[in-house]
Amino acid sequence: MSTDTGNQYQEILQGLYGMLERFPTRNIDLQEQTDLVADMGLDSINVMELLQEIEDRFDIIVPLNVMSDVRTVQDLATQVQRLIRENS
Length: 88
Known about the structure:
Mean pLDDT: 92
Shape: globular
Helix content: 40-55%
Low-confidence stretches: none
Order of helices and strands: HHH
CATH class: Mainly Alpha
């Protein structure tokens, strides 16, 4: 991963942490391997709210079929980074 790509990923990750902190986290520390459903207990409505916030913040459109590959915060950050690159 190049330095620019790594920096972008870290910025995305920090942004996602900020967004996720407003959801109940069951007393866990958010990390890259935090599972959005199993660890955080996000339901479909929470996920839709999160996606809307991600789209607004990063100026991207997140296709719903992308979410089938997303389990962890890291998966989500990777997908957001991919979508940003595709829209550049």
